[in-house]
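Subject: sequence -> structure tokens, single chain

Hey, anyone have a minute? Need the predicted structure for the following. Not urgent.
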Amino acid sequence: MNFKPLVSIIIPVYNGANYLEQAIKSALAQTYLNIEILVINDGSTDDGATEQIALSYGNKIRYLTKSNGGVATALNFGIKHMHGEYFSWLSHDDLYYENKISTQVDYLSTLENKNIALFSDFDIINKDMELLHRHIFDHSWLTKKPLYALLRSCIHGCALLIPKIFFDKYGLFDESLKTTQDYDLWFKMIRSEKFIHIPQVLIKSRQHAEQDTYKHPKVLDEANRLWIMMMDSLTKKEKLTSERNFFDFYLKMYLFLRDNSPYIQATEYALKIAKKSSFVYYLLYKYKLRKMTHQ
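Reply:
Had a minute. Here:
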């Protein structure tokens, strides 16, 4: 009952006048009251439109500005200026449900070790806030195979609550990365720290044409390198905590990437390593596949 840590909600924004007000309102509407809201203007060039929205909230938020450098630089800037014990990222075009922070703090209050990262299910909405899809993950499966929270893309950065101490321990976001800075850092953390899934929908993630995910020229290259790096970096023990053998691990990585991503290089790499790890298993897989096709 006495566990009421200060939570820092950091909102990085660049030319975000279209959606920033909705994001700030969702942060201010949190039922958990011990929060601070930092809006980090990453050098917007929209004739002051983004700044005008932020300034309209006065001392309800902390408004900070910096020269443009990308979302990783804005998040790092926010982390360096935050006062809270926990970090919660809110993209300027996303929204929190009002119980986002309270649900996560309530869960932490039940734990003896409170240096835990928490993540939740999430909604996908369009530019008009219409629901497109609800991402609900298997809690028991993620409990048994915690690395798959990342390796099956179950973690949305804005659905996380992260102890500030994790950044002191593992460093900040890699500012050379433009689109994969989040998973790059979560990967460093999740191999040694607990990431626990809360089976509730706590955020709305907006999809729209202006996002870097769709328009940045480095998206595919960075993502392919990220997924290959994660597969290469895991130890034998880590892979075998998720699957019974290396062939199954790489085959399932291949199937996941093939069915859920446009990352051709990483997909082909996973299949190549699966084949290399056990050519006999690979032939059996191909045989079963042909048999199913002809049935």
